[in-house]
Amino acid sequence: MPLATIEWVGGLDGHARLIDQTLLPTELKYIDCEDVPTMWNSIKRLAVRGAPAIGIAAALGTVLGIRGSEASDFNEFEEELRHVANYLGSSRPTAVNLFWALDRMHAVARHNANLPIDRIKEVLLEEAKAIIEMDKTVCRQIGRHGAELIADGTTILTHCNAGGLATADYGTALAVMFAAHEQGKRISVYADETRPLLQGARLTAWELMHAGIDVTLICDNMAGLVMKQGKIDCVIVGADRIAANGDTANKIGTYSVAVLAKQHGVSFYVAAPASTFDLSLPSGHFIPIEEREGNEITCGFGKRTAPEGVKTYCPAFDVTPAEYITGIITERGIIERPDADKVRKTLGAQSQPG
Amino acid sequence: MPLATIEWVGGLDGHARLIDQTLLPTELKYIDCEDVPTMWNSIKRLAVRGAPAIGIAAALGTVLGIRGSEASDFNEFEEELRHVANYLGSSRPTAVNLFWALDRMHAVARHNANLPIDRIKEVLLEEAKAIIEMDKTVCRQIGRHGAELIADGTTILTHCNAGGLATADYGTALAVMFAAHEQGKRISVYADETRPLLQGARLTAWELMHAGIDVTLICDNMAGLVMKQGKIDCVIVGADRIAANGDTANKIGTYSVAVLAKQHGVSFYVAAPASTFDLSLPSGHFIPIEEREGNEITCGFGKRTAPEGVKTYCPAFDVTPAEYITGIITERGIIERPDADKVRKTLGAQSQPG
Q1: Cα–Cα distance between A1 and A23 in angstroms, integer?
Q2: What torsion, rounded to 10 degrees, do the Cα atoms A147, A153, A158, A163 define?
Q3: Whether the Cβ atoms of residue B315 and residue A225 lie closer than 8 Å to each other
Q4: Residue B81 buriedness (CB in 10 A; 0-12 / 13-18 / 19+)
Q5: What Cα–Cα distance (Å) separates residue B38 from each residue in B20, B65, B228, B316?
C-alpha cells in the first residue's frame, strides 16, 4: 500500500498524521493531530478506525498527551500518563488494541522510570514508532500465513474493512488477499458495503481496486444469496477483540455472515494480530459491545432516510462464537477450529504486555 | 390507514393518483398519472412498489392505455390491449401480481367482447376499481388470520415494506401487525432498513409510527444479533411471487433473514394474497430475479459512497425455500409448513384467472 494510514511526522515536537477515512473514497485528506483531544475525536468519529490502527492512534495519542509534561518526578509523570490513557481509552470501548497499546506505553514508561522525564518522552515516541513498524511486520506475516489457504481462482467474501486503512499499511483480512494477489493467484472478492458507515463500500472496495484485485460491491443483505448461488469459496474478516476461547467481536453483521457461511458450507476465517486477543476474557460473552448514535442509521448518507423521532438500535459490533470460525489467521500461524487450548498454545503468554 | 396509496380519480377521463414513495418519509407528494409511460415509469423507479400495489398500478395503467382507443372492432382493441400489457409487463419482472392483474384485465375484456368498445373501456375501469376493493378486503382477511398467531407482548422482525404502502390500504405483513394492534395486543417491531432503497427505514417505520405501534429501526446486518439476543419472537415478511411449492421470492435479504431465523429457532412467516402465487412455477428455481442498477448501491442517497467505476451486483429479490417458512398467511387461511400439496389445497385453481 503506498499510503500511510497513520504515522508520526518529525521529532517529539512533531505531530501525528492520519487519513480522514470518513471522507474516502471521494476525498483523500489528512488530519494533523497536535493534541490529544484531536486524536480522541478522530478515533471516536472513525476518522481512524480498524483495531490495529486504533492501537497505533492510542500510542501516538499518548505521546501527544505527555510530551508537554512538566512533571518533576516519575510518580507525577505516571499520574499524567494514566490520565491521558483513561481519556483515550474512553473513545471506543470494543477495540482491545487500543487498551493493548495504552498498556504497552505505560509499561515502557515504568520500565524506564529511572531516566529523566524528557528522556522518557523520547522513549515513548520511539515505542510508538516501534508499534507502527511491528504492525507492518505483523500484517505481512498474517498475509503470508493466510495466502497459503487461498488457491488460484478463489472467490472471497469480506465484511467491513480490515485493510491497509485499518492498520499501518497492509491490513489483516485484506493482507491475505494482497499477499495471494502478489503471489500471482487470480482472486475475486465480494465486499459487503457494511452499514451503517459503509466501510466496505468506501474503504475496502477502494483499497482492492487500487491493488488491482477484482472486487464486486454488494449490500450486506445480499451475502446470503451470493453464498446460495455458490459464488463464495471462503469468508475472511478482521477482528476488534478475540476472547481466550476464540469468540470474536468484529463489525456488526459479521455474526450474520458467519451463520450464513456455516449454513452454506463456506469456510469462515478471521485474520488478526496477537494484540487483538484479550486472554483476560474467557469468552465473547464478556466483550463490551459499543452502541453508537442512531443517526448513523437514520441519516447516514447526509440525508435523512427515516422518520423523525424513530427509535433505533445501533450496535457497532457483534460476537461470532468460535464454533463458526474455521480458523484465526495470526502472525504466529493459523489457529484452526479455535478453542481455549489452541489459542493458548499459539499465543502463549506474550500477547498481553504490561 | 388513512392514506390512499393508489387510486383512480374521476371517471374514464380521470387519472390514476399514487403516492410517490421515493420521497417518503420526508415528503408526502402525489403523482397524477394521465398516461401509460408515466405509470410505467412510476412502477420502474419504485414510486409505487409492493406486489399488490403494483398489480393495481398495472390494472389502472391498462385503463390509461386503452381509454383513448379508436379501435373499430374487438380484435383491433384486443391488439391494443396486448400492446399496453406487454409494455407495462416490462417494468418489473419479479412481481407476479403485475402479470396477474394484466391477465385479469385481459380476461375481463374478452369476456365482454360483444359489448361496444366504449362500454368495454368502462367495464375495464370498473374492474380496476374492483381489484382495489378486493385488495382492501384481502388485506383485512390476511390481517385477521395472521393476528391469531400473535400473542400479547410479541416482538416481530420484518424486512422491507409489506404495509399499506405496498397495497391499496392495509398491507400484508403489516396487516397482521395492524390487526393485532387493533385487537389491543401490545406488540413491538424491529424493522430492517432494507438496503439499497431503504423501504424499511422510509416506509415501514413511518407506517408503524403512524399506527402507534412500537418500532425500532435497525440495519439489515443487525438482524442476526437481535435474534441471538433473544429479542425476536417471529419474523413476518411479504412476498413478490410464490411458487407452487411455497418457495417465496421477496425483497433481497429475506433469504438471509430466513436462514438466521431457522438458526435461532424463530418462526418465519410470509403474508401474501393468493394473487402472489404463481402455480405455473413448480419451485422458486424458476422465478426470474430482477437485477437493478448498481448506482442504487453506490449512490443510493444522492451522495456517492463507493469508488467511481466499482463493480456491483444488485439483485432486487432472493428466493426463500419453503423449508425455511413456518407458514404462509393468505386471505384464505394459513398454509403451515408449506409444500405443493398444502398450497394446492388452500388455493385450489382459482388463484390464476384468465
Answers
A1: 18
A2: 50
A3: yes
A4: buried
A5: 12, 11, 45, 22
Nearest to B39 by CA among B11, B13, B67, B20: B20
pLDDT grade for A303, boundaries at 50, 70 and 90: confident
| Structural domains of chain B sorted by starting position, each given as residue range(s) with its CATH number in brackets | 6-139 (1.20.120.420), 144-347 (3.40.50.10470)
Nearest to B252 among A194, A222, A256 (CB): A222
**A63-88 pLDDT per residue, tens:** 999 999 999 999 999 999 999 999 99
DSSP state letters, A151-215: -TT-EEEE-S--SGGGSSSS-SHHHHHHHHHHTT---EEEEE--TTTTHIIIIIHHHHHHTT-EE
CA B278, B284, B287, B293 dihedral sign is positive
Does residue B354 or residue B20 have the better pLDDT? Answer: B20
Q: Which of A227, A256, A262, A318 is the best substitution to test chain B (most B C-beta atoms within 10 A)? A: A256
d(CA A287, CA A240): 10
Rounded-to-integer distance, Cα A321 and Cα A309, Å: 34
Q: pLDDT of A232-279, one tens digit each?
A: 999 999 999 999 999 999 999 999 999 999 999 999 999 999 999 999
Residue A240 DSSP SS3: coil
Q: Is B192–A221 a contact, with Cβ atoms under 8 angstroms apart?
A: yes
Which of the following is catalytic: A169, A240, A247, A278? A240
Cβ-proximal residues to B142 (8 Å cutoff; 6+ apart), any chain: B172, B175, B176, B271, B272, B273, B329, B330, B331
Query: Does the distance separating the beta carbons of A224 and B306 come in below 8 Å?
Result: no
Closest CA–CA distance from residue A315 to any residue of chain B (Å) = 8
How far apart are alpha carbons A348 and A342 in whole angstroms?
10
Matching residue, cell 416482538: B155
Mutate to test the interface with B, among A210, A222, A303 (most CBs of B within 10 A): A222
Known catalytic residue at A13: no
HSE on the CB side for B213, CA within 13 Å? Answer: 33
pLDDT of residue A349: 56
Give B155-192 pLDDT, tens digit per residue: 999 999 999 999 988 899 999 999 999 999 999 999 99
* B9-61 pLDDT per residue, tens: 999 999 999 999 999 998 999 999 999 999 999 999 999 999 899 999 999 99
Give the one of B297, B302, B310 whose C-beta lies nearest to A303's C-beta.
B302
Catalytic residues of B: 240
Closest-CA distance, A9 to chain B, in angstroms, reads 29
Query: What pLDDT shows up at residue B334?
Result: 98
Nearest CB among B256, B302, B307 relative to A223 is that of: B256
> Which of B219, B283, B285, B323 best probes binding to A when mutated, by most A CB atoms within 10 angstroms?
B219
Q: Nearest CA to B310 among A194, A204, A169?
A: A204
Looking at this predicted complex, what is its ipTM?
A: 0.92
Q: Which of A307, A232, A218, A310 lies closest to B315, judged by CA?
A: A218
Q: What is the pTM of this model?
A: 0.92
Integer CA distances (angstroms), A99 to A42, A48, A90, A104, B351, in order:
16, 16, 10, 8, 62
At B59 the three-state DSSP class reads: helix
Chain A CB contacts of B256 below 8 Å? 221, 223-225, 256, 260
Q: pLDDT category, A313, cuts 50, 70, 90?
A: very high
Do the Cβ atoms of B297 and A225 come within 8 Å? no
Are B221 and A216 a contacting pair at CB < 8 A? no
A318–B198 CB contact, under 8 Å: no
Element (H, E) at A226: helix A223-228
Nearest CA in chain A to B225: A318
Q: Chain A closest CA to B191's CA: distance in Å?
A: 9
User: Alpha-carbon distance B109 to B76, whole Å?
Assistant: 12
